[in-house]
Write the structure tokens for this entry.
Amino acid sequence: MSELSLGLRLAARMLRAGEVNLLVGAIALAVAAMATVGLFSDRTRLAMAQEANRLLGADLVLRWTRPIPPEFAQAARARGLSTLSTLAFRSMAVHADASLLAEITAVEPGYPLRGSTRIARMRGGAEEVPRSIPAPATLWADERFFSRSNAHVGDRIMLGDKTFTLAAVLTQDPSLTLSIFGLGPRLVMAYEDVAATGLMVPGSRATYRLLIAGSRASVEAFRAWAEARLPAGARLEGVSDARPEVRSALDRAERFMGLAALVAVALAAVALMLATRRYHERQLDVCAMLRCLGCSQWRVLRLQLVQLAGIGAGASAAGCAAGYAGQLALSSWLGSLVGIELPAPGPGAAARATLLGMVLLAAFALPPLISLRRVSALRVLRREADGPGFAGVAAYAFAIVCIAGLMLWHAGDLRLGVYVLLGCLATIAAAAVLTWSALGALGAVRSNGTVSWRYGIASLRRRSAATLWQVIALALGLTAIITLTLVRSELLAAWQASLPPDAPNRFLINIQPDQVDAVEDLLASRLSYRPQAYPTVRGRLVAVNGAPVDPSTYGDERARRLAEREFNLGRGDRLPAHNRITAGRWHGEGSGAELSVEEGIARTLHLKLGDRLTYDVAGVRFEAPITSLRAVQWDSFRVNFFVIASASLLSSYPATYITGFHLPADDGGVANALVQRFPNVVMIDVASLVTQVQAMIGQVSRAIGFVFFFTVAAGMLVLYAGIAATHDERVREVAIMRTLGATRRQIGRAHAIEFALIGALAGVFAAAGASVLGYVVASKVLNLPYQFDPLVWLTGLAAGVAGVVAAGMAFTHRVLGTPPLASLRQIG
Amino acid sequence: MEAVGLVKQVRSDGRDLRIVDNVSFSVFPGESVAIVGVSGSGKSTLLGLLAGLDAPSQGRVFLDGEDITALDEDGRAAARARAVGFVFQSFQLLPAFTAIENVMLPLELAGVAAAREQAAALLDRVGLGERLTHYPKQLSGGEQQRVAIARAFVARPKLLLADEPTGNLDAATGARIAELMFALNHERSTTLVLVTHDESVSSRCSRTLRLASGRLLESARQ
């Protein structure tokens, strides 16, 4: 008979007999927490990618300045993908003898493949989603076109050789959102009309796009196929370009949930550690019996390994099932999060969670297990015959390294993982030192008081190592629960406050310097405050530390694009609100040539403090060092810049101004007034984006509450494991004391005193832990302000004492009611 | 089985203590031998040495002609698996296993296919045919020891070693257990070596070895 089947049968017996309930519970819980968050994150990430694609109008866009060879569309369709072509070019549009340079997009039926366009049948009229693209010989024009040309719906417009009718006002277009810095008025027409205009002749400047959409796998397959065949200068644009505002909010939500799950894993690890101790003690007898029955050391080890793997696999499977159900619940809550169906989760998250369960089990159970093979067969004759020690320092070090690796891996965010890990280790160390001191101090007051008091304290001191672990485990469990109830709500409130109802939903760009005061005056007269306009200079990064920037050397597509294109450089000496310096120092007023770079883009472009950047602004170059890195709260929707230069550095370059403000939904007058008085100024409407992010924050807050449920469950499990850890010993003691004539009341009181002291110690540590955790998470991870709450201490103490006494007494109540002889027999 | 000049020496409080002191004797196939003596006389230690559960400081133990003291721990384990069954004072049933699973274990370890049937038959023989799926804690002391005896005999060992098999049981139950053990010993022609305080048990053995302070005082033949 193979070792495998025997080992698995032994495992099944252990599971059925309930010998390993705690062990299984701890693993299943850790796996469930991780699987829930992992599966859900998978799905939202996929959904967010699709959402980003709505802004792109497709899942993938192939762009070139020449007609795209037809084999690309054929290859895409052969993979079951939908395709359509668009063409963008500039041309003079003639209206009533006046002409205007317009940006024209010609689209094929079915446009867009993702997201939707919106039009109004008249200026200021109600928006609708059109059923088709513009009919032949008609145009849709945006508000800019109408205001600059003074045209009306129904007017005739000449484009090249062909005359069109203005059919509708274009109010939303996926490609509009992406090209927010394209400044010209826009027209949309049917592709089939392009030839009749005669505008497209060889050498015409135009951008051809092939829009592609379909299942993720097919899109990826096409992408891989196409990338190898792209003509020079052609480019694929894909899913990695979600709006930073949405991505930032979602990232934060994922970090919140990831943190909750990580804490759950850390707690489950503690419960597991307590459980393995008990498992190890029970297995001593099993191994001694196996040795006595003639198993070799290696056979004992092999059987134990198979048995443990079987238990771990069973528990992990249960955890995955629970995790799958959990993320279904989460998704049903959040299905409307992005307005589209969440895609099915991939199997990756479940596999990762299962691996986590197995590693967790291996980390704690393996080192003592390996020592189990050396158990003396003599133990069957003399129970006191030494078993190998539970685990040495090396074993715990192994466990900590494993757990640390897991946490860093699962956190996905190194900093978050390190904080949680260090937080746990610091809490354990501090709790150990303080508990040790407290036990010493209790010894001094032991001689006073009743028998129960003396016995209670004596028990604590005698089991000092067990007491220590109990206090630490309970403190960690309580920390999670307090963090949930008090700190979480504050963190979420702070987050929601970071995007208030009056967050900017309109941006004005291309304001000329001489228009700044007038624009600000106009806005101030209609709004309750005066929005500030920020100067900005368009420049392109051409060299880093003197070496020319070659976009093709960047592996990352986003980095390539950033290196290729011009973007807006901020100019100023005052650090904008919602920006935080993370490295170096802010240049401040009166400084020389200095640059401050947003940390995300610095990472993307591999820039670091002290690098010297050369920018090309309208053909003129300047060089300056990076003297600070900034964290920017993108989802605040305020005006933010990737790079801010000191005022003196950019004062001689032509600047335009940009501002953001909140425009209430019913106030269309401001928009019209702005467009009419300042026709060059472009207004970008992000109201729907702001609403979307606000709704997302609200929904995600509820989701986080749900994920924290796992954390609380893990905390409870730790409480249970902590109390169960000394259960066998307690049963024996109670039996002996009862035999010696102690009353149930006396023993009960002694237990209550013992539990109350443990609970008080754990509660105080938990309060400290929750405060520090809240602060660190708020300020370091989520970039939110945090307020200390004195109530935490009171809650910690009360919850600790009440929780541990209640749980502990419930546990030992049964023991007190059992006749001493039965207890002794049960323990053996 | 033969023991030659067995010595077990431990250090206690800085001096050497001989728990088993130069013990030699032989046990012949089919014989039943009782080792008796006061508490602390070294009976259980001697039994442990005979079973190869522990290594002697000096001397040799031959099992079925093989010098098990020359083997390492795993070699001795293999010898146990081949030839030795055990019954203990405290039963030593695995609490997570049902009665039948406890009895099946030696067969399963040996890779016997019909483990369940053989175990069930033997449990039926010891009178526990109705209690196969009970856990040890659901059984009385006498029933637990009967499960332990079934486990000891199920692999058909040549030698059965028993350590105070009736020590944890009342007189009446102990007598029934002893009865069962000797009956099985007879049915299966096993060699029996047992340590006991119980006169009624030792008197049924073909020979009694008396130990005092680790030394063999006499070897009385009934």
